[in-house]
Amino acid sequence: MMDKVLPRAELVQGRQRTRKAGIGRRKTRVRDTGRETDSAAAVPDWVSARQPSPVPSGMALPDVLAWHSVPVPLAEALSEGDLPGALGRLLAFAPLALEKTTPLAFCGPSGGGQTLALARMAVAHVLRERHVDAAPLVIACDAEPEGAAQLTAWLKPYGVPVFRAANIEAVQAVMARKEATQPVLLDMPEAGVYAPGGLAVVAEVLGQTAASPVVVLPAGMDAEEAADTAAAYRQLGAERMIATKLDQAGRIGSIITAAACGLALTYAGYSPSVRGGATRCDAALLARRLMVVPA
């Protein structure tokens, strides 16, 4: 797959002497040290609001959808009736939580925010459980040491070790250390659906680990490329997606297009913060975000 087989998985960050999952077994309370390095995200109005947002002045709903680059067939379907209701009929929304029996594999196009999305899930889990033994087993599936550096920087303040596995054998070696009830999070290698080899490496890891793929797609993508990406990951068994960068991009037609290809929306990212920075995505929230257009 990548490079030669490692004699053992490399521990990127965390205690050098660990038992099984790479974490201490004392029921130590987790200090919220992340408060010092990563402040909680500011919540935009379209996230915090509870009432539907009006169509911007001087625009009709079809104009709004066209500005967001929603493909014409989808825009026509969404223009029938109220927008939240139409989104609820056209798209699927689903929960996403760490699982004790099935690893979650975060994957998607380069620069789409999959590593941050994984880090948020890990941090939220640790802060909710409040002790070190709750730390998930986090594996960076990357042949280069630098590939795990950012993930390590995000998770180190919360006491979550990160393992780098350069090939499928190393991934399996780390997973063999997993505790029975310990969640596993895989940060998949960067892969593009148009690149030579496509998603072959991703498919291999998914097949050997029986992981459930979670596709992470950013707002602002070309809608057709989002559709191609969603379709490719659907062929690998993906059923859920996380939308990211809704704070940075203007147009979110790519998110609606990918979801319309069969990926259920779970979370929407609205900040680069690892603490918070994302919220459960539903039809009402997506409708409010669509109403955010330049004045």
Order of helices and strands: EHHHHHEHEHEHEHEHEHEEH
Count the helices. How many? 12
Radius of gyration over C-alpha positions, nearest whole angstrom: 20 Å
Percent in strands: 5-15%
Largest sheet strand order: 1-4-3-5-2-6-7-8-9
Give the proportion of residues in helices. Answer: 25-40%
The outline comes out as globular
Terminal CA distance reads: 50 Å
Contiguous runs where pLDDT drops below 50 for at least 5 residues: 1-37
The number of distinct β-strands equals 9
The largest β sheet comes out as: 9 strands, mixed
Topology:
Elements: E1 10-13, H1 34-37, H2 45-48, H3 61-67, H4 72-78, H5 83-90, E2 104-107, H6 114-129, E3 137-140, H7 149-155, E4 162-164, H8 168-175, E5 184-187, H9 200-209, E6 212-218, H10 223-235, E7 240-244, H11 253-260, E8 264-269, E9 278-280, H12 283-290
Parallel strand pairs: 2-5, 2-6, 3-4, 3-5, 6-7, 7-8
Antiparallel strand pairs: 1-4, 8-9
